[in-house]
Amino acid sequence: MVTGVRTRAVHGGKEDLGGLGLHVPPIDLSTTYPVPDQAAGGAALADWADGLADAASPVYARLHNPTVARFERALADLEGVDSAVSFASGMAAMTAVLQAACLMRGRPHVVAVRPLYGGTDHLLATGLLGTETTYARAGDIASAIRPDTGLVVLETPANPNLDLTDIAAVVRAAGEVPVLVDNTFATPVLQNPAAHGAAYVLHSGTKYLGGHGDVLGGVVACAEPLAGPLRQLRILTGAVLHPLGGYLLHRGLATLPLRVEAATRTASELASRLAEHSAVESVRYPGLTGGPLLGTQLREPGAMLAFEPVGDPYAVVGKLGLITPAVSLGSVDTLIEHPGALTHRLVGESDREACGVSSSLLRVSAGLEDVDDLWDDLDQALRVAAADRPRG
Ligand SMILES: *Cc1c(COP(=O)(O)O)cnc(C)c1O
């Protein structure tokens, strides 16, 4: 009986390879599949249309792809649920859940806890899909729920300020309403929201799951009865993950535990040093600010941190030489960005400030470099920017 996360990350989704005489998963690029028995092909098509996880033939690449399905089985196993359904991107995955939980069930109301990834926040705030959103604090969810509420949306650790929220408490407050937890920051290595009652666990696979900054994808892990409608939507909206993306995400899972463990050690060290630095006002890192949920819900503090420099945050980024100034996260190299300018630009400034995302906040995704090289880069940039700041 295999239970270790490293073992499952390496072997998950590869159960059929031995029978195929293969060591590495094949990349199946077929767009169509011969069905000499057209009646049997039709039965398979009907199975996919019903949202089933398996059928006698893929029939057509928009209905099913074996390479992608291996990644999904591996990810579902790491999240401790029956099923996972992948999409072309994290936002496509988010869209599918809103369609399945809200629009298909005639419950267009969403309750969301800020801060959220800027794209999710903007999708919910604009109501572009036909949903309507009430933003609530984690403690006020029960009173925000209405008879037409279809989904509660939560991100913990939150993007970008690393707030932790008690998933089980939110699930209790939501009652019958399913809760979606965006687990992109924690990864299944550090947190399994389904174990705390979350109905949908969402990942932007673009980040840690792929892990090398070269694949865009999204995935939702959930119980099989919730997965069927997501597959039905995916077939008809066409927001499928490309097989090459499925292959890269599956390959990324094998090193996910080691990458997350190494980057977490680096982030912990950077957070402690930043907290002592005279040119830093404040540091947000679950290892420093996480409270009682750290070690229980969130097993380790993770590889994301945020801080407010004393100097101009744009100047700090401009002085960096090694750390990559870019959005996204979870790659092999360390990335830094200004959420107010970039990832959370489309969230109104007052809403941003109200949920603790100040205009001086910088977000860092720790990579796999040597921590002292990263520190030398940060330290010089902080000092120069603090010395240059206008006085008065
Ligand atoms: C990037 C991100 C998303 C969106 O994912 P894409 O793959 O870019 O569509 C959603 N949630 C979080 C927390 C993210 O970081």
TrEMBL record:
InterPro entries: Cys/Met-Metab_PyrdxlP-dep_enz, PyrdxlP-dep_Trfase, PyrdxlP-dep_Trfase_major, PyrdxlP-dep_Trfase_small. The keyword Transferase applies. It holds the Pfam family Cys_Met_Meta_PP. GO terms for molecular function: transferase activity. SUPFAM superfamilies: PLP-dependent transferases. Keywords: Antibiotic biosynthesis, Pyridoxal phosphate, Transferase. Its cofactor is pyridoxal 5'-phosphate. Belongs to the trans-sulfuration enzymes family. This is PLP-dependent transferase. It comes from Amycolatopsis minnesotensis.
